[in-house]
Amino acid sequence: MPIDPGAVGREGEPRTRSWDSKDALLYAVGVGAGLGAPAEELEFTTENSDGVEQRVLPTFAVLLSQAPTPSFGEFDRSMLVHAEQHLVLHRPVPVEGTVTTTARITGVHDKGSGALVTVEATAVLEGGEPLATNRSAVFIRGEGGFGGERGPKETWTPPDRAPDHTVTYATRPEQALLYRLSGDRNPLHSDPAFAAKGGFDTPILHGLCTYGVTGRALLATVCGGDPDRLAAMSCRFSSTVLPGQSLTVEAWQEGADVWFRTKLDDGTVVIDRGTATVR
């Protein structure tokens, strides 16, 4: 069987990763910080600006909390897309550090047109303090129909009013080439031939790059610019983004609870069912 439902509970090999100031700066530029306004967001894009202390974008923790996923079957890798991302931040992300992370498969669901595989991993700093918990899901097109459970159905109900915040950020035509330098070298985002094999006319932007741009919007609005206030951020990737397209983030806030979504200029929703928690 191409997809193995018995993979639930399987753990991958532990991964230890260290990062430093340059890695955090490269990530920030990779998700568009400073684009069009280089003098803004200097705390995330520079380490030596007068009177500005370097800080780290909270969504960088998504990369720091990744680890090798154990095998869950054989399939065409070009048919795999990132479907969901859930991040819980247990503390602010330091400018440099070392974490150890182990990924575990938590679900293999039959969605009919494809398979949805969910994975969870927690990054632990040296000394034993947890940094972040990463829960993600990938969708493998064409690999459904194996008779498994469809998985839980979640509701998403933002307040019945216009968004409290609306922010638009541009991306660059070469945004995916910048973002891939932070570690995701999937050729779907850089190689036209590989993208065509997956049914795309051109390489698409990483879902986690769109996630990072969206995180910047939440940081600037519901978090008041303070990265320490973002405690959790979850979403579903609902459509693809091409490098160079602009992203508009709409957010509703009631106390610590936030609902959000991200759209293209034509109204296409590319991040849906977004929720966040602020401290």
Approximate shape: globular
Poorly predicted sequence stretches spanning 5 or more consecutive residues: none
CATH superfamily: Hotdog Thioesterase
Largest sheet: 10 strands, antiparallel
The amount of helix comes to 10-25%
| Estimated structural class | alpha+beta
Please state the average pLDDT score: 95
Strand content: 25-35%
N-to-C CA distance: 45 Å
| Strand elements, count | 10
H-E string: EHHHEEEEEHHHEEEE
Strand ordering within the main sheet: 1-3-4-5-2-7-10-9-8-6
- CATH class, named Alpha Beta
The tally of structural domains comes to 1
Radius of gyration: 18 Å
CATH architecture: Roll
In summary, what is this structure?
With 279 residues, this protein is α+β, with helices and mostly antiparallel strands. The protein is built from six helices and ten strands; from the N terminus they run βαααβββββαααββββ. It has one domain: Hotdog Thioesterase (Thiol Ester Dehydrase, Chain A), CATH 3.10.129.
Notable characteristics:
10-stranded antiparallel beta sheet; alpha+beta; single chain
3D structure, described in words:
With 279 residues, this protein is of the alpha+beta class. It has a single domain, classed as Hotdog Thioesterase (Thiol Ester Dehydrase, Chain A), CATH 3.10.129.10. Helices cover 16% and strands 33% of the residues. Strand 9 (257-263) and strand 10 form a beta hairpin.
Secondary-structure map:
Blueprint: E1 15-19, H1 21-30, H2 42-45, H3 60-64, E2 80-89, E3 97-110, E4 114-125, E5 130-141, E6 165-169, H4 175-179, H5 192-197, H6 207-220, E7 230-237, E8 247-254, E9 257-263, E10 269-278
Antiparallel strand pairs: 1-3, 2-5, 2-7, 3-4, 4-5, 6-8, 7-10, 8-9, 9-10
